[in-house]
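lol ok so funny story. i was supposed to be doing the assay writeup but got distracted and ended up predicting the structure for this chain instead. priorities right. anyway since i did it might as well share w the group, maybe its usefull for someone
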Amino acid sequence: MMAIGGKGLGQLLAALAAAFFLRAVAGPGPALPPPPEEEEEEAEECSAEGDEEAPVSGGVIPVTIRWSSITCSLSDKQGKTVRFLLTNVSGEAKPGRLLAIMGPSGSGKTTLLNVLAGQLAASPRLHLSGHLDFNGRPISRGSCKIAYVRQEDIFFSQLTVRETLSLAADLQLPDTMSTDTKEKYVSELLFRLGLVSCADSIVGDAKVRGISGGEKKRLSLACELIASPSVIFADEPTTGLDAFQAEKVMETLRQLTEDGHTVICSIHQPRGSVYGKFDDIVLLSEGAIVYMGPAKEEPLAYFSTFGYQCPDHENPAEFLADLISVDYSSAESVHSSQKRIDDLVEAFANKISVTECISPIMKTGRLGFPEKFGRKSLVKKRHGWWRQFCLLLKRAWMQACRDGPTNIVRTRMSVASAIIFGSVFWRMGKSQTSIQDRMGLLQVAAINTAMAALTKTVGVFPKERAIVDRERAKGSYALGPYLLSKLLAEIPIGAAFPLMFGTILYPMARLHPSLSRFAKFCAVNTVESFAASAMGLTVGAMVPTTEAAMAVGPSLMTVFIVFGGYYVNSENTPLIFRWIPRVSLIRWAFQGLCINEFSGLQFEQQNSFDIQTGEQALERLSFGGSRIRDTMVAQGRILMFWYWTTYLLLKKNKPKYQQLLPPSELKQQLD
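and the output, tada:
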């Protein structure tokens, strides 16, 4: 202190006084502090360069989003533009303010939201141009924490709300945080978003009743808030909710703006109380801006200057929606409403030029945060492979063992099919006719096991893939730990059903009476079940929807059934199809079951040309000289092939998003 001169001491005291004054004005921090480690690092980074926009208390970095000249068009196969989804759209979203993008169906609300969030699905027929800046800097990967709450809320149905949030925290927060700190952080999120009352309830789905739609929407927000994002995008957050739940969700978004977040949502036609929560609105009609600015009194006053008065006691949102919608009831109404909208679009374009929409920060190029900010404090280092695997294995095991409805259905199917097949093939003897019966029973057993596993997987995995794609986009984990954890977690549950099926069927049909033969029978069916499940994963990774997977999966299995060794002998298979029996899991399972059953079996012989031994029956099927071990190895190879194919498909089909190009660069590409 003595070494500091009078001038330096005065500057120091002035700086301290200013700091105390700013802290007093800012008041206490929000109820959602980020993890301590991240908060310290962010504060250090933001203060390193002396930037003007310091983070708000609690660690949320204030971000102002500005966009200009956003144009999105759709072209035909010849490259000719057939439709404009967005036309020269400009605007701004500020921290601490809730911005709502409104407009009738087809106006471009979701398209604009996806463009701003970087979530517009890529397509060669789509052309996107414009400028998008976050705090005056062109957006780039890792430069800002962004949360995107999708319209459809998809979760692992058998996990509770607390478990869902805790696993998200374990996957996204750094290992340096203690378990107690993470649990406290999760508890604060549950309290902040009003999820305490349902914290220990399972999320549920269409088959199992769980939490309500509004609670699922708030859970989606909670999962996105784990990383303390600066910007929150919400696509139609009130879709499918009643008026009360919709207001609760919007109240949550409103509270997040008070914490310093920049919140942008698209919404169709909100009720009056919901509209009152908006700070700013963007009105779109047919991809063009009709109005942009404050949401309270300004839009009604603005449109009144054109002679459009909002009646007393009418919901402003309904008035605005009717004003910018095309009336298709008659040709005259279409013409008049279209002319009204065109006039309003032109009037607003003349009133607000693009240069007025862009703030001085964008014009001068001054930065809202230092250049190194995005690289250090915002890019989270992903957990190690083993840590990811353990967390994903825990989640996969809880989902598999708690999925009561699915497990009950599979149990009933296994028991019912075993009883039916056992009744049809009751107590088979050693006569010549029993040879055909045994082959038929083993074939239907192989088909039943494979189809049951395939149907279950293709009915579930496409929805799960949407969750995995979303989490991988956040960088929560890699693809390898996920697939391996899924395989291992389903082994105990998946093995139970073939064992149950064999335990009932084997004695009823009086197959080869030996404990070792029974064990091999169950083992062959179990490996086949896992191979069919792996094939279902590949189908689910290949097609976009559950319905498509349910159509493709059984069709592909039908081909394997035809070449399964019973209907067409492998020696008689046309040369062009010789490869199909080698990859048919039905054929290898049938071959293994036949070797297990017929080896060492003696049949009653009435004529000289009758089959006397099981080995002779195997020769007729072209299975002579084969061993069960060979069939198990082949099944294992098929299983690994399908898993490896699934891995490659998921890696290749990772969602790709349209790149926002400057107008000049897009024009060069089109030329």
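The beta strands are 65-75, 81-93, 98-102, 126-134, 137-138, 146-149, 231-235, 262-267, 280-285, 288-294. Residues 236 and 248 are 14 Å apart (CA to CA).
back to the writeup now i swear
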